[in-house]
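Field log, afternoon session.

UNIT: design team B
ACTIVITY: writing a sequence onto a fixed backbone
BACKBONE:
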C-alpha cells in the first residue's frame, strides 16, 4: 500500500470500531494512537473471505505480538480492545481522556517530528521499511548506505556541529 512508501510518517488516531479494511489500513501506518473505547479486529472469515484486501494476513503477523496472536485474531474473528492492542503492539498508546487528549498528543508528536530534517525522517522510514521485505543482513546494508548518504549533507553537518557545540566539543 502506498502509505508505507510515503517519505513522511503516517499517524492514525482511532476512536471506536476499527474492523476489517479499516484495521488493515491502520496496519500500514507508522504510529497508531487510540482512545480507551477503541476495538480492533479482522472479522472477514465470518463472511467467507480473508483479510487480504489491504494486507491483513501479511501485516498483522508482523505487528501483533508475532504469528500466534495474529493467527488467533484472524482465525476466530475475535475483536480486541485498546489495552490488548497496546499489549500486542498494534497501537503505540491508549488515551483514557478521549479524542481531545489523543489529538493534542498526536499534534505534539507531529511537532517533534517536524524538528528533524525531512530527509532524515524519510531515510529512517525507508530503512525501517526495508526490514519488512528483506533479510536482516540486506536491511543492515541498506541502513549503512542511507547513513553514509546523510553524513555528506550540509543539513546533517550543520545539525551535528550545533549538537557538538552544545556538548562542549569542537
Amino acid at each position: 500500500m502506498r502509505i508505507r512508501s510515503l517519505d513522511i510518517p503516517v499517524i492514525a488516531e482511532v476512536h471506536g470500531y476499527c474492523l476489517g479494511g479499516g484495521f488493515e489500513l491502520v496496519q500500514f501506518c507508522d504510529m497508531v494512537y487510540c482512545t480507551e473505547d477503541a476495538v480492533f479486529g479482522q472479522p472477514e472469515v465470518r463472511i467467507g473471505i480473508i483479510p487480504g484486501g489491504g494486507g491483513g494476513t501479511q501485516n498483522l503477523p508482523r505487528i501483533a505480538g508475532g504469528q500466534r496472536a495474529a493467527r488467533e485474531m484472524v482465525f476466530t474473528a475475535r475483536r480486541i480492545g485498546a489495552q490488548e492492542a497496546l499489549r500486542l503492539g498494534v497501537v503505540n498508546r491508549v488515551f483514557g481522556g478521549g479524542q481531545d487528549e489523543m489529538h493534542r498528543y498526536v499534534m505534539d508528536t507531529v511537532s517533534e517530528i517536524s524538528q528533524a530534517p525531512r530527509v532524515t525522517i524519510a531515510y529512517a522510514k525507508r530503512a525501517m521499511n526495508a526490514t519488512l521485505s528483506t533479510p536482516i543482513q540486506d536491511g543492515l546494508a541498506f541502513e549503512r548506505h542511507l547513513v553514509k548518504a546523510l553524513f555528506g549533507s550540509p543539513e546533517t553537518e550543520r545539525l551535528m556541529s550545533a549538537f557538538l557545540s552544545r556538548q562542549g566539543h569542537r
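LOG NOTE: The chain has two domains: 2-113, 118-166.
NEXT ACTIVITY: expression trials, pending approval
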